[in-house]
Each structure stands twice: as structure tokens, then as C-alpha cells.
């Protein structure tokens, strides 16, 4: 008997272990958590959570068999594909799941897992019956075309699917635009271009019109590429499809230049964007070095998450100061940005500042009328804080003493409009293929992505409930502070506090930030109590030293 903990609590995979039409038919278990037992159509899509020994939890994704009875299955055509037949164990094991938490202590619970992505032995579509469509939504990101290409080529070459449509111009394209037939020939060299060959848009998400269009066109696999907003839209589409009892897969491929999608290791195009940002930082460095008291000021993307700025800074080593939305700062007075600039210019004669577009927005809205405008998707429109702070720096140094030479560089759209680099191309290929395998296997309502390096199917709920942010108490931010040696910019009154009060404990650093969502304040209480290693952080350090010095002091 197999004594593996997972099999004992029946981590059911309808595509491998319990096919519905094989001679060795094994009944589908009725007792799965949140599973309604009978295979009647269920309109409630509740989380599929399976618990096991030693604190093991599987957060599973929906499957056709959850709400459509008696579906036939077919052997996966990949088993006859010469490219894959030689690969041992090409099909994913029934029990394979991917752990979210891989840094563990001896006695800590095994924690959350996701279903491993990849091809299954049985599929729920015959190749000629598949009618797929692809849509891209939200802002641009390097690699969009590669994902489109690889979904098309994956469907054609691995599964013999020949009906793939491109939906033009984002969600509204489902009901307001024509479709584009996509073949391997059409998409052959699109990965060499930036942008998306399908076009994109914000807003225009009309669920019933979109699902009507899917139904009217006879589409049964919907591949949706986009960021957090897009995945929210995909989740709503999935719920409506499920409510109507349609055999239609909804598969999300996460896209965001800001890297703000939680759970997954990082989003595609991020590396390319960081690489492209180096060109702007290099230019800023060259300009600043060449003039007396030169300041190169670079504004990068990052609405709520400063990952691009942080990684671009770490990669460059020429940056003296990195400003991100997660780390508040102020301009005037002791410990402020102006004081630091003056100090650094006196020491080095020049400096480079990198700023994420979402940083310091509160300073700007204090000084000018708050901008409460939104884009078509409901995202807050940001003020150009980079330009504003540049002007404030110029004004500040005009007054008394130092003549400065500030050059403002805004490459924001350049870093997301370029084609993806080689490593992102490979990453995009894996994402696309994982999505195709999952769809063919009848999984639906999922976003695909790597979790600790292994591709997994993640329920929509998990990627839309929170945003991935830089955790400034994690080691990665400490590495950055170590590289720039910038101050913490904590407000003087916060730093000193009420002298009668006890000096609060310095925040300890708890583990690597490998780009996963770790902003504790966004975590569910359940997660926090389950994972005892990520306790609610104590008050951030605060003793007048730089952030880094304080961290080092604490580690002594
Ligand atoms: N809560 C929601 N429910 C349904 N649809 C949504 C929701 N939020 C956003 N959308 C739709 O998703 C699409 C993309 O959203 P948005 O413009 O926020 O970009 P995104 O996917 O977050 O990408 P990025 O922020 O990386 O550019 C839009 O068409 C928008 O209407
Ligand atoms: O100008 P657009 O196309 O709305 O996009 C700008 C936004 O899109 C992003 O690239 C992704 O959310 C943000 O960094 C940026 O604020
Ligand atoms: Mg977004």
C-alpha cells in the first residue's frame, strides 16, 4: 500500500488516477473537502482545500468534473509525440504538488501547496473539438507576444489543435472587435517584437457580453494574459461560465511589469524590464559623472510595488539612492532626502537617484491638489512625482550654496515596450505550455506560474486577494541599503519618539525575499497563524541610525 501522506488523504487528480472512461474505472471520491459529492452541476465555486498530515494543505484548482458529470477522457496525444515519448516520466504524477513555503524548521507545518503544472495522461478534449482563444489585457509587458506564440504552437504541435482565435484589444474585444485566426505561421516571429500583436486595453469588462461571445463562438478554451485586474476579470468570467455549466476552460497567465502578482516567483518580462532600465541608469551615471555636482534622476515603473527600482538598483551598483512606494521618505530637515543629496555630492561629486513612479505620492498630494482621477480599469492615476521631486531638488539647491546639475530621465514606457530577453522567452514558453497542459487536462479557473521554481496551477482567488510588495524588513531591501548606503528616511519624530517611551525593538529580518508576496499585513489571519515563522512584525527599527546600521546592530 502506498503510504505517502498525500495519497492517504486522496489528493484527487481526475486526469491521472481516476479517469472516467477507462476499463479500470475507480469511483470518484465523494468526500473531498468542499466537494459536493454528487456530480450535479454546482453553482458555488468554493475553494478546494485538502488538508493532510503534518500541516499539509493543498489549495487545489477547479476541474470540469467539479460541475459537469460523466465527461469522457482521452489518452494524451503527447504519448505518441516522438519529441516527448523518450522523456521519462513526462507526465505529471498524480500526487505532485508544489510547496509554497520551502524554508522550514524541523517541526514546522508543511503548509500550503499547489497542484503541479504539466501534462496529464488523460485529457478532456479531443484535439479536433478544441476551439481556443487568447486575449491580452492591461498595460504592456515584454514577452506578451512570446506567450501568445507559445500557446498557439503548443496547442498545434503538442495537442494537434488547429482552431485558435486571437481576441483583439483586451476584454472589450470579445464583444466589440473582430477576431484574428492564429496559426504557427502567423505567430512565427512575433516573439521578436515588443507589445502584443492582439492589442490591449483597460476597462470594458462586461462579464455577460464576454461569456455570451465565448458561447456564441463555440470557444471552449480561453487563455487570458494580464495583470492583477485581468486575473480578477478572468475569475469573474470563470464563475459565470461555471454558473452556466459550460465546458469551457478559463486559464490565466499572469503578466505585470510591476511584479505585483503574489504567490508566483516573479512575473514574465520583469527581468527584461530590469535589464532595459540599466540603459537609463547608465546614462544617468554618465551624465552625472561628467558635470560638477551632477545628479542623474531616473524614474521607473512601479505603481504600488518597487521591485523594478529595487532590482535595477541592485543590478547597477551605480545608484546612490532608491526610492520605492513601500519605503516612505521625506525631503527637508535632518535625515531627509535633501540632506543626503548634499552629503553624497560633497563626498563623491555626483550621484544617481532611482525612483519608482508610486514613491512619494503622498508628498506630492500634500503640496498640490490631490489627483483622484482613475484610468478605465479603476486604477488611480499617479502624478508625475519624479518630475516634481526633481524640481524640488533644483529649487532647494538654488537657494544657498551648491550649484547642481540635475538630468531627469524618464524611460518608463521604454522598459516595458521592448521585446523580451532570452531568459524571459524561455520563461514565457514554460508558462504558455503549462497553461495549455492544464486546459487540455480539464483544469479551469487557474493562474499558472512558478512557485519556488516549479510551475503550478494556482486558484484565481490566491492571486487576486493581495498584491506582491517589497518587504522592507526582508534581506533583499537590506542588500539594497547596503549597496547604496542611503538613510532609512524614517521621520525624525518617529525615529526619536517620545523620549520617555521605551525604545522599540528593531525589526528582525526573517528570510529571503524571493519575490513572493510576504507583506504580512495583507495575509489572512489563518496564514499568519499557520506559518509561525512569519509573525506580525514588531515596530520598525528606530534609533536614529540608518536602517542598515540598525539592522546590523541588531544582528550583533
Ligand atoms: N475587479 C475586476 N473585475 C472585472 N474585471 C476587472 C477588474 N479589475 C480589472 N478588470 C479588467 O481587467 C482588465 C485589465 O485591468 P487593469 O487595467 O487593471 O490591468 P492589469 O491586468 O492589472 O495589468 P497591469 O496593471 O499590469 O497593467 C481591464 O479590462 C479591466 O476592466
Ligand atoms: O499608462 P498606462 O498604459 O496606463 O500604464 C501605466 C501603468 O501600467 C503599469 O506598467 C503596470 O501596472 C504601471 O507600472 C503603470 O503605472
Ligand atoms: Mg494592475
What this model shows, in words?
By secondary structure, the chain is of the alpha/beta class. The protein has 18 helices and 17 strands. The strands form 3 sheets. Strands 1, 2, 4, 5, 7, 8, 9, 10, 11, 16 and 17 form an 11-stranded mixed beta sheet that branches. Strands 13-14-12-15 form a 4-stranded parallel beta sheet, with helices on both faces. Helix 3 (144-159) crosses helix 13, helix 5 (207-217) crosses helix 6 (228-243) and helix 7 crosses helix 8. The longest helix is centred in the middle third of the chain and has 21 residues, at 270-290. The structure holds adenosine-5'-triphosphate, 6-O-phosphono-beta-D-fructofuranose and magnesium ion. The record marks 229 as: Important for substrate specificity.
What name does CATH use for the topology of the largest domain? Rossmann fold
What about the largest sheet?
11 strands, mixed
Q: Please work out how many helical segments DSSP would assign.
A: 18
CATH architecture of the largest domain: 3-Layer(aba) Sandwich
Which structural category fits the helices and strands? alpha/beta
CATH class membership of the largest domain: Alpha Beta
Number of strands: 17
End-to-end Cα distance, whole Å, is: 52 Å
Radius of gyration: 26 Å
Q: How many domains?
A: 2
| Helical amount | 25-40%
List low-pLDDT spans. Answer: 1-11, 17-44, 495-556
Bound molecules: adenosine-5'-triphosphate, 6-O-phosphono-beta-D-fructofuranose, magnesium ion
Q: Which range does the strand content fall in?
A: 5-15%
Average pLDDT number: 83
* Shape annotation: elongated
Subunit structure: Homotetramer.
Region (Disordered): 12-33, 508-536
GO molecular function, one term: 6-phosphofructokinase activity
Domain Phosphofructokinase: 133-437
Amino acid at each position: 500500500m502506498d503510504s505517502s501522506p498525500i495519497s492517504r488523504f486522496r489528493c484527487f487528480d481526475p486526469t491521472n488516477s481516476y479517469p472516467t472512461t477507462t476499463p479500470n474505472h475507480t469511483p470518484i471520491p465523494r468526500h473531498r473537502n468542499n466537494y459536493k459529492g454528487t456530480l450535479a452541476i454546482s453553482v458555488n465555486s468554493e475553494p478546494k482545500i485538502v488538508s493532510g498530515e503534518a500541516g499539509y494543505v493543498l489549495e487545489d484548482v477547479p476541474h470540469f468534473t467539479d460541475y459537469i458529470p460523466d465527461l469522457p477522457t482521452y489518452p494524451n496525444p503527447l504519448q505518441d509525440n516522438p519529441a516527448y515519448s523518450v522523456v521519462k516520466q513526462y507526465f505529471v504524477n498524480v500526487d505532485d504538488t508544489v510547496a509554497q513555503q520551502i524554508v522550514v524548521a524541523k517541526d514546522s507545518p508543511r503548509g500550503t501547496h499547489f497542484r503541479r503544472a504539466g501534462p496529464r495522461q488523460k485529457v478532456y478534449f479531443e484535439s479536433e473539438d478544441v476551439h481556443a482563444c487568447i486575449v491580452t489585457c492591461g498595460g504592456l509587458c515584454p514577452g506578451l507576444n512570446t506567450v501568445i506564440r507559445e500557446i498557439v504552437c503548443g496547442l498545434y504541435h503538442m495537442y494537434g489543435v488547429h482552431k485558435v482565435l486571437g481576441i483583439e484589444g483586451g476584454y472589450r474585444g470579445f464583444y466589440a472587435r473582430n477576431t484574428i485566426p492564429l496559426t504557427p505561421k502567423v505567430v512565427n516571429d512575433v516573439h521578436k517584437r515588443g507589445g502584443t500583436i492582439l492589442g490591449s486595453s483597460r476597462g470594458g469588462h462586461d462579464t455577460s457580453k464576454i461569456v455570451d461571445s465565448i458561447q456564441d463562438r463555440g470557444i471552449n478554451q480561453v487563455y487570458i494574459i494580464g495583470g492583477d485586474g485581468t486575473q480578477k476579470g478572468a475569475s469573474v468570467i470563470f464563475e459565470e461560465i461555471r454558473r452556466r455549466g459550460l465546458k469551457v476552460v478559463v486559464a490565466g497567465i499572469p503578466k505585470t511589469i510591476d511584479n505585483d502578482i503574489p504567490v508566483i516567483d516573479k512575473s514574465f518580462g520583469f527581468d527584461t524590464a530590469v535589464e532595459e532600465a540599466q540603459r537609463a541608469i547608465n546614462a544617468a551615471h554618465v551624465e552625472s559623472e561628467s558635470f560638477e555636482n551632477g545628479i542623474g534622476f531616473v524614474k521607473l515603473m512601479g505603481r504600488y510595488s518597487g521591485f523594478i527600482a529595487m532590482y535595477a538598483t541592485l543590478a547597477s551598483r551605480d545608484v546612490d539612492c532608491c526610492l520605492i512606494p513601500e519605503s516612505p521618505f521625506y525631503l527637508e530637515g535632518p535625515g531627509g532626502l535633501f540632506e543626503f543629496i548634499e552629503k553624497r555630492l560633497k563626498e563623491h561629486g555626483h550621484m544617481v537617484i532611482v525612483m519608482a513612479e508610486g514613491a512619494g505620492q503622498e508628498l506630492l498630494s500634500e503640496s498640490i491638489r490631490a489627483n483622484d482621477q482613475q484610468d478605465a480599469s479603476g486604477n488611480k492615476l499617479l502624478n508625475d512625482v519624479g518630475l516634481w521631486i526633481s524640481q524640488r531638488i533644483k529649487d532647494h539647491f538654488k537657494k544657498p550654496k551648491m550649484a547642481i546639475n540635475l538630468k531627469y530621465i524618464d524611460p518608463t514606457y521604454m522598459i516595458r515596450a521592448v521585446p523580451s530577453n532570452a531568459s524571459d522567452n524561455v520563461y514565457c514558453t514554460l508558462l504558455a505550455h503549462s497553461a495549455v497542459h492544464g486546459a487540455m487536462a480539464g483544469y479551469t479557473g487557474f493562474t499558472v506560474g512558478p512557485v519556488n521554481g516549479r510551475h503550478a496551477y494556482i486558484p484565481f482567488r490566491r492571486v487576486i486577494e493581495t498584491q506582491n510588495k517589497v518587504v522592507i524588513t526582508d534581506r533583499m531591501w537590506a542588500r539594497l541599503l547596503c549597496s547604496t548606503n542611503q538613510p532609512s528616511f524614517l521621520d525624525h519624530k518617529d525615529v526619536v519618539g517620545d523620549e520617555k517611551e521605551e525604545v522599540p525593538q528593531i525589526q528582525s529580518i526573517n528570510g529571503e525575499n524571493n519575490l513572493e508576496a510576504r507583506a504580512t499585513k495583507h495575509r489572512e489571519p489563518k496564514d499568519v497563524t499557520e506559518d509561525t515563522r512569519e509573525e506580525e512584525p514588531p515596530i520598525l527599527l528606530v534609533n536614529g541610525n540608518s536602517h542598515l546600521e540598525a539592522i546590523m546592530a541588531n544582528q550583533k
